[in-house]
Write the structure tokens for this entry.
Amino acid sequence: MTLVSTPSTTAPAGTSAPVRKHRGSHRRPRVLIAVTGLFFALLYLPIAVVALFSFNSQKSLTVFDGFSLRWYRAFVHDDVLIASLGTSLRISLVAMAGSVLLGVALAVGLVRCRTRFGSLAGLIMLVPLITPEIVTGVASMLLFKGLGVPLSTGTVMLAEITFSISYVTVILRSRVAALNPEVEEAAMDLGATRWQAVRLVTLPALLPAVLASAVLIFALVFDDFVLAYFTTGVDPQPLSVRIYSAIRFGVQPTINAVGTLMLAGSIALIALALFIPRLFGRRGGLDILSGE
Amino acid sequence: MALLRPSSRTRRRDTSGNRMWLWFMLPGTLWMTGFLIASLVLVAVLAVGTTDELGNPRFGFDLAGVRALADPAYTEVLARSLGYALLTCVICLLIAYPVAYTIALYGGRYKHALIAAIVVPFFANYLVRMYGWSVVLSDDGPVLRALRAVGLADSGTKILNSGFGVVAGLVYGFVVFMIIPLYAALERLDVSLIEAGRDLYGGPVRTFFFVTLPATRQGAAAGLVLVFLPAMGDFVSAQLMGGPDQIMIGNLIQDKFFQGQNWPLGSALTMLLMLVLLIGMLGYLRRTRKDEAEALR
């Protein structure tokens, strides 16, 4: 799928449409378009409501009284929430670095290695993807308790790395598979060792996908709450855990402000992850998420 | 070309390469075995264990936790969770199909942008989205107000604190996992097949059921599994959109580990959840294998 193929795939649709219209059998699918429109409206309505009422001057979530930055100011002056923000940022950075390091190596190894250990590693890699988060959360919590490790920010980091490796590997694996191993062999024929070939040839070719997966993991970990909820201690809890406790015990408008900032931040990061490959002149987009 | 054929030298290098690739895989695999596989085994072991007075897990062989699962209070929650999750799957399919179909077939040059506009917010903060959704569906929220305005609801109609609210939450949370595989399947679909169906005087409905739907069955099956997995384990939707009568198995697990402090029972419930999901996964795998066998025939 290169940029060249895009016009050729749209061309038949463009040429066949008038033909169908000519036959008179083709109608615009009004119902389908209406359903899709309604879907988009309902998809964005909750996000819009949170964002709108974060600027409300009153506490109400149903009546908008006037524009104010009151709740954003309350957030900035809330030492507990700011400490939680710091915790979340630290967890995301560490989980990003750890899982990208382990996940990229795993992806390269999985594609290139044809041994029985390789297929076993591939199976293990799939486990987090088919396990619901609550199970991973419970399991990680039991592991730390069983080992006598007190729950803290550090245990959240360890659990998040574990959970994120698979995402990095899935994203990267198809990219590695698309690389021609003969390029590495050419480098070695020119005198490079195998490690040099990987470092100087393979890794630079993977850079866009590595960066995209890093940004995506950062956003996912920052937003994650189930795993963090089960593995966090009492030291400044991650922001998402704090939000969870807040929304369980009634409406707090400060949460609207925090939520709006988090939504804006993660939407920006995920959009960035989708478009990083484009910056490198490659087809970007959703194949990052689907791993295709 | 003959020069590129692997010589004996490159083949020797391949085996030494294999050893290096093992070193590449080792750290990640060891990490996941140590933290994930070991911890899942631990859950299974604790399901038949006990706890000491301080609530720390102690290992032994005690079937109290497993036996408690037969309690009607728990089987009822399990049945309800299954019902909610399956209903969520069906509703997601009914919503996602027309949306994915419209975008894939009529999206034209905006196809990718439209799909991105669906996917990007879905990967944004789950909690905040669910919180916003609960505000939207609240008694004074825009949805009920609109329904009241057109006479489809009266002042007593509620969405929150009902099973309907919980399912609405699950659908909102996970419908994207249905849209992505369906869209991928529909985009691969050869439009000329649909046109051929019409040329052969199949009406739009018959063409859809005999051409489009069979061609996208794999995508739908993948979507059903991808929605079922998180919906079955979710506990946020039941907490925000439901009441005490709508709790799901995830809420029970959470309760046993945090408030109830009955870890063996919590572990047993977790294993039960895994078992249900495993059955679902195996059903899916059998289905796809059958499909593949049919395709080969």
